[in-house]
Task: structure prediction
Amino acid sequence: MKKTILVTGAAGFIGYHLSKKLCKEEHFVIGIDNLNDYYDVNLKKSRIENINSENFKFFKIDINDQNSLKKLFSKFKIDRIIHLAAQAGVRYSLENPMAYVDSNLSGFINIVELAKSNNVEHLVYASSSSVYGKNEKEKFNENDPTEKMVSLYAATKKSNELIAGAYSHLYELPVTGLRFFTVYGPFGRPDMAYFKFTESILQNKTINVFNYGNLFRDFTYIDDIVDGINKIHGVFPNIVGKNGNQYLTEIYNIGNGNPIKLLDFIKELELNLEKSSKKNMVEMQPGDVFKTCADIKKLNNLVGYEPKVDFKEGIKLFIDWYKSYYAI
Result:
């Protein structure tokens, strides 16, 4: 059934790919984004232009602009919200903490309030694997403790989960949180390591390889992430109303489940670029974790989520896009 879906952060990496997918599924997508300059604004504008669908309508709105958000909801009957807008980046949270308070906390409250007051069917929001912090298990499970976070970014994402749970309980609001694991692919974020590595290798610049390359990340290709989100927004949490038990939000890992060593990832970039990198091997950075790996059984059991793109194929697709986009 065709729905009107608000995608916040529509000019972002995941928001762009998701909006394209939803439009192809014949949903009407309202995309909002403040188009800030955290990274190249032209890339964000290119994403919006590339959606190119009659089912998509874009508005430049900041999620902290309550008046503009209220006007949007008065103009459109929004059935579902997929909330992806946030201040991204673990390391940047050390430099500019207030950007995370404004977007990831105040902005999040605005969206949840609008979902509540407008009887939205389902609010799906982006959490992060960073909430697991110094989890040393082989695979991170949704029931694992999340008290040992190592960055402000992670703390704001955990706060989102707590806020969503409280609103869900108080107002019977169907809310689902998705803990994303290192997403990569075409039209990706220039602040991400794989993007920076590619740029530096092509320009013969030295790359900083943290923890001497002995890091593992659960790299997840963008199409697999979008497939999971697309499957989940129409599946509402199994909830009990005011006369029954506690009403809680659901949280799911959404990743690949097969972590790749950083040095192996760099080697694959070099292979596709047909060029070696100049490496500066450095120690672990504040806010970083040694390894991430998603246990995706819960999402698989619910909607049959199963990643299909391995990292070698994914890197090739990214490099092909990079060369085309930057005319290399």
About this structure: The chain has one domain: 4-183+222-256+293-308. Residues 189 and 304 are 28 Å apart (CA to CA).
